[in-house]
Batch of 4 targets.
Target 1
Amino acid sequence: MTALQQTPTIDVDKLMAFVFKAVDEVGATLNTALVVLGDKLGYYTTMAAGPVTPARLAEATGTGEPYAREWLAAQAAGGYVDYEATTGRYTLPPEQAAALTDPSSPAYLPGFFQIALGTVHDIDGVLEAARSQAGVGWHEHHADVHDGCERFFRTMYNAHLVGEWLPALDGVIDKLERGAKVADVGCGHGASTVIMAQAFPNSTFTGYDYHQASIETARRRAAAAGVQDRVNFQVGSATEFPGAGFDLVTTFDALHDMGDPVGAARHVREAVGAEGTWMIVEPMAGDTVSDNLNPVGRAYYGFSTLLCTPSSLAQDVGLALGTQAGPARIRDVVTAGGFTRFASVAQTPFNRVLEVRP
């Protein structure tokens, strides 16, 4: 005789708590698009100058008043702006203004929303890839992924790279000031490369990325910054980029995206000098799932599922480290590639900086 399966008892209070949590999640999902809309239409920058009504915001930005009206109400409901019922005016608090309108602020967030929106935009391709156990290449994603990635990470590089991360590496600042040979592998639009070149005019920098469109953008960024005399950008993969005898190799927020990170580590080991350094900057993560069950980990696991893991699976080997690989897994990768020294030397809430030596 087969025992009858018992129907679990539903706690109605817990059920409804989850339902309202889900409602909040849907509102947050829609708000990602609303923040990108507000950023691209100039709503936030207009509000940074002072309180607005829907009519005033629409007039100042050359947009339709119904859009401004509903956007403002949604932003007020989400706590992004303040609403004064007696005057019908909306105010962007100074803290939100710093995070949403000031590119020099270490808390500047529009790029984070932009890359998230671009990532979600490509869900159909990820669905098909998951079903066919394939991947989705970085080059196949919406432009908001590429542009948002640069904007988001450039904020952190501006805030930490020269003042904190590079000084945490043994002897690297002295080499850069005297004149070092540097390779920035997986450079994307070149934000990290340009920042280093601006800070260390005696050194030379070569940025490598497999994505031709990103390299073209990086070249424009270098010209606009006036550092093209000491910066060169080339199309090249992490396992095959040319050059040798580099004093410093850097890889920013890219190792976990690679199909063959062990092969990349092996190639970097061949390219870096005997006294050279490989600086790896990876998303902040611990070594276990339990370590990463927090808001930052949640966001990064989301990016890992929809963006970073599909990117790795689209390449040869397809190791799929995942965005939350953690330092122990990265240590295994670089050790397999021939490096012997490994240390976590700096961190922020979003990044961990690793020093790897021969």
Target 2
Amino acid sequence: MKKTPGPAMFKGRQTEPLFILCAVRWYLRYSLSFRDVEELLVERGLEADHTTIWRWVQRYGPELEQRLRRHLKPTNKSWRVDETYVAVQGRWCYLYRAIDSTGATIDFVLSALRDADAAKRLFRKALADPSHPQPRVINTDQAPIYGSAIPDIKKEGTLRRRCRHRPVQYLNNILEQDHRAIKRRVKAKQGFREFHAARRTIQGYEAMHMIRKGQARWVNGSDVRQQIQFINKLFELAV
């Protein structure tokens, strides 16, 4: 198949940009390994080594998340915050995540440590995004890291002082359920070998998860074809 010109970010790639995005989408959307994606491409007459697919995910997964941000619907003012475990190089790291009361993803941060500084990074990152209004309440479990992180970011002016911290475990059940969508993909990968690679891959997982939840404007969360068209447009590819 003759390769057609694509956007500059695909320059130097020997594979059609549409097929690259297809492989990246499969990996980020479903609980597949890189070798699984390699086999699926072979079924369609395309050859790409699993290490090449890994490089595509590392390059275009974070790019998808960054380009998606400006198309997200606003979240609400009732936040749920918690962390979950992710294996990196055989050690546990911590994925801090925030969603609103409807289940919409607000933001996430991967940290090597489980401490108040990591929680503060999550809050700063989330509140720097204009699509997230200042929360009126932040629900967490009773971990002491949140009891110190939230007052600190109030003092620095990042978070409004009127925001209420509500440490009630059962109210975070919706977030525990939401963790599972990310954990399934991590489990298929059987852990990460390097921290920065883990962070870039998780950016892609989270971006695809937001699209599937219907957080992108004018994109139906249950319409797979519409989501494919949307992602192609994000990367300036003709549909």
Target 3
Amino acid sequence: MNQITVLNEVTYKPSAIPVVIPMVYDALFKLNSKLNEESMRKKKQETDVPLWEKYLLTVEEAAEYFGIGQKRIRRIISFDPTAAYLLTVGNRTQIKRVQFEKYIDSMSCV
């Protein structure tokens, strides 16, 4: 028996096996990674709270919610770091959604 048949389609000689095994291992690793990513994505979708229901938003979430760039939001935050619509949690600054909405409503230009 000088040959090995894989999935009844491809036949390899024993000299090719050291090349084929890493390829199969790599393919299985990639498949496993994709399956893990998909399950994590589904799990995250099940537990995510919609942005319009959150009390606090990160800068990234605020940018998505308000349609303003992250740099612009960070610039607005830097103008008044003690504003009523800001909450500092550790070293992160979070935005109180409803109060920031009122602040944005009061502005004519951002």
Target 4
Amino acid sequence: MDRLLSHIPARLRNRYAAAVLGLLCWIIFFDRSDAWTTFKNRWELGRMEEQRQFYVREITRTKEQLLELSSDKQLLEKFARERYLMKRDNEDIFVLVPEKDRQATSADNN
């Protein structure tokens, strides 16, 4: 037994050091909240915070647009005509598609 222990460094022969080392290995590699999972979760949290900031800006912009549209009838009509291609009874609507988009669309259809 002493021959077997002589190959192990003195620091690792200490049972408290071995227990601490084993615990650290368990926490770093095998625990539910291991180092890799913690890293992934922090990265995901950062990405979600960026998304949250984007959506807060979009909500603010949309509320401003809604306020403008609800207060100005002409702007509401312009918005509806441009966005949803609405028209008056005596009008025709022509939608102009850029050449590049039209080629991509026709290639998709073939």
